[in-house]
Fold each of these.
Amino acid sequence: MNQHCRDNQMALCYAGGRTATIQMMANSLERLTRKRTDLVQAWRDAGKTDEAWSPIDELDKVIDSQEKILLELEANP
């Protein structure tokens, strides 16, 4: 196998791994967003206390961080 073929195979492996990583992160963000929706509903049901909102704030930080990473991955092939 010549170097050109090996280079192409490596590029395909990289692209496949990158695509899988992006899809995994998108799926993870979808799950986190559903979890946030559930937490907001629980907060509403619990009387809308500041204490009950704290886990939502923490989850928002995680979601924001993951979204930034995903956007960077999508923007920089």
Note: Residues 7 and 13 are 10 Å apart (CA to CA).
Amino acid sequence: MLKDEQIYTPATIAAFAEANGLLKEVTTAGIKLEKQRIRITMGRFSNNHGFPDQGDGMVTMPGQAPVPGWFGWRWKSALKR
């Protein structure tokens, strides 16, 4: 469901999952924990699949420093490996 030309970080993927009703949890605490697990898993995924450390671009979320992110096509193509 990720858009090919949009840049995503593990945190924006977790937010995307929540916004699109893809989370299984229904309680506030459960949602928070599930999003944390997604962020950790996607961070490991990007490292394990050799995503460039500098990213394809920088993403800034409110209250956070800019972090590197990668295009949706990169995330999707890594799934096919």
Note: The mean pLDDT is 96.
